[in-house]
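Example 4.3 (complexes with small molecules)
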Amino acid sequence: MFRISHFIRELDHPTPVAPRRNPPGPVVIWNLIRRCNLTCKHCYSISADSDFPGELSTADVFRVMDDLKAFRVPVLILSGGEPLLRADIFDIARHAKAMGFYVGLSSNGTLINGSNIDAIVDTGFDYVGVSLDGIGATHDKFRRLDGAFDASMSGIRLCHARGIKVGVRYTMTEDNAHDLSALLRLVEDEGIDKFYFSHLNYAGRGNKHRADDARHQTTRDAMDLLFETCLDLHRRGIDKEFVTGNNDADGVYLLHWVTRRFPERAAHIRAKLVQWGGNASGVNVANIDNLGIVHPDTMWWHVPLGKVRERPFSEIWSDVSNPLMAGLKRHPRVLGGRCGACRHLDICNGSSRVRAQQITGDAWAEDPGCYLSDEEIGLSAAECRGERVVTTPFVSPRRTA
Ligand SMILES: C[S@@+](CC[C@H](N)C(=O)[O-])C[C@H]1O[C@@H](n2cnc3c(N)ncnc32)[C@H](O)[C@@H]1O
Ligand code: SF4
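Answer. The structure with S-adenosylmethionine bound is encoded below.
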């Protein structure tokens, strides 16, 4: 996850650069149920409104939580499918809160209504994230349900009115990119606390429909708009979080934007971006699916690492006998193609490895989702022709008059 707003704040209020440190345990995104009332075109969990047998019981979940706590996992994001379809969702979330986890709810928002808002408030979720993949009909088409947008908006407003920190999650493809600016206006008008921009990842139905992925120029325009919007709000004293997911090249793109807009800050922002360190799948982000199978992150459901019913999560996560886990945990990662030659690999860490693996079969090949030009990744003309690459450290551009 890439926190745009964190770096935008650094432009006006720079803070000291510290060495890169990993948190004590990974953030765990936990798909507690696969059932869903929607069947979104891009859904990595291939969810649908049917029963998926073999899911973890409440007792299983509580037992796993003990291990996660002992392993110093700080954050649980309760997700699905649609987590509100799990009858014990509030018991699970309350238990997690009582154990001291930061607990987020990741919902499509359509089922948040007058009958459960008190329970959502009383549970004390630290954050509720609701997906909005466009405005009105765009969202309904993407999520394949007429009326989904109105229902999700109603859920967002209920949460907001009750003082819950609420965010909007938007996954962009070529089909809904035209609604980004309207969504950003909506976020401001509705007083929504956070905007999470997700790039499409090639998992589940998102892989099947990967031809719909945003063109590189569409992504670049979207990033420019996000950076400018975040800066504008910040300078108007409106404090919101802007984050992106599924493409850590965003950090490098931000560096180039800063170099153009605030050249005097480029060296500082670069140092801060290196401190962040890019993609954290398999290291600081983990996933447990509805059957209790552990994956390096939510987009790796096609790679099982082990089952929490058979081995503790802590053991599965620390085991690097799986070559994917060993490679993800290497720092710097050993990558091929443009990623291997990139001068900014220390910022992005090779981004999500899923797209490379789905397209080429090689998890360490270049990320086809990297939308940076050869010049932006520091390739010389000779390197672009495939000759041997020798990288040199980044040199901050001189301040221009
Ligand atoms: C699987 S959903 C579960 C929570 C809830 N049902 C929802 O839709 O928000 C979690 C988030 O992942 C996003 N997502 C699903 N498949 C994706 C993909 N292939 N690439 C990027 N994001 C994806 C969804 O849009 C949603 O914001
Ligand atoms: S993305 Fe969320 S709402 Fe859509 S089908 Fe998947 S789990 Fe359901």
